[in-house]
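Re: [ENG-882] Designed sequences occasionally contain unexpected residues at chain ends

Forwarding the minimal case from QA. Structure tokens:
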């Protein structure tokens, strides 16, 4: 999905009734910046505070969402490092926060934006749904986001009575989509972190009888949730993964340290050497003694 479109920008009036709506729009637009073209484009069409320091760093008194649907470039906020950005990235600009961005000269980019203010947006930030510390979101190229920006432009172009109410509703819909994207990404990251922690925990206790339910409790999860997450990230149930670790350690003890089958079973906290031997053969296709002889 690499749409090309005619440029459009509109800076919108906000009356008292618009402000009573709790979320109102200040600007809506889109631009297609060809490779090698100056940026910002069509500078004379925008109020000076929006464009004069965009590459060097500007501060706005509003929120802005800038969605990139083609090309690549950079973004920096609050004097921090420059983030590389590409198609499918959404830049979240916060009021009072210095920021700069622009496309790479050899790629250009297509951008769509909306500026907005209001207590409702402030509350979403206050409650942690969005943060100036996380200004770059990566929802990917999505038809629903492009559709929302197209709706914003169509309504802003017409400016029919009550248009600010409609714009506010679409901005809230956009924010809802983004909040869901952020939450899913955080859950994915947390789940991956839990699986990594569990693997390290198992590795460090490979010579013990680890109770999987106790490990789940240690990680703050029910056994069912822990098993589901672990299976997703490793392809194995927790006990099967732990048993594989034990078998790997058993091979090392048999080959490198030359321990007897009985000694290895005891070291790895098996109930007895017969249970260990059955587990080892199921894993390798050989008994422990036969495996050790094959390595001699």
């Amino acid at each position: 999905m690499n749409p090309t479109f005619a440029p459009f920008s509109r800076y919108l009036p906000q009356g008292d009734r618009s402000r009573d709506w709790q979320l109102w729009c200040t600007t809506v637009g889109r631009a297609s910046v060809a490779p090698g073209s100056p940026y910002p484009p069509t500078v004379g069409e925008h109020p000076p505070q929006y464009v004069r320091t965009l590459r060097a760093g500007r501060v706005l008194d509003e929120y802005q969402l800038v969605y990139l649907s083609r090309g690549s470039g950079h973004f920096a906020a609050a004097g921090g490092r420059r983030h590389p950005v590409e198609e499918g990235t959404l830049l979240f600009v916060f009021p009072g926060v210095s920021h700069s961005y622009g496309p790479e000269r050899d790629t250009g980019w297509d951008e769509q934006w909306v500026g907005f203010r209001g207590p409702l947006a402030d509350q979403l930030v206050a409650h942690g749904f969005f943060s100036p510390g996380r200004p770059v979101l990566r929802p990917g190229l999505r038809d629903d986001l492009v559709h929302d920006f197209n709706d914003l432009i169509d309504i802003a172009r017409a400016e029919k009575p009550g248009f600010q109410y409609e714009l506010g509703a679409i901005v809230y819909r956009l924010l809802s989509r983004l909040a869901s994207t952020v939450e899913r990404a955080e859950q994915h990251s947390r789940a991956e972190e839990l699986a990594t922690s569990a693997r390290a925990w198992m590795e460090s206790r490979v010579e013990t009888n680890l109770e999987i339910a106790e490990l789940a409790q240690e990680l703050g999860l029910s056994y069912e949730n822990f098993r589901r997450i672990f299976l997703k990230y490793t392809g194995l149930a927790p006990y099967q993964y732990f048993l594989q670790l034990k078998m790997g350690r058993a091979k090392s003890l048999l080959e490198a340290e030359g321990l007897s089958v009985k000694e290895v079973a005891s070291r790895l906290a098996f109930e007895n050497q017969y249970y260990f031997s059955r587990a080892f053969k199921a894993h390798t296709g050989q008994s422990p003694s036969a495996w050790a002889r094959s390595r001699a």
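QA comment: On inspection the terminal residues look reasonable. The first strand starts at residue 8 and ends at 11. Proposing we downgrade this to a documentation issue.
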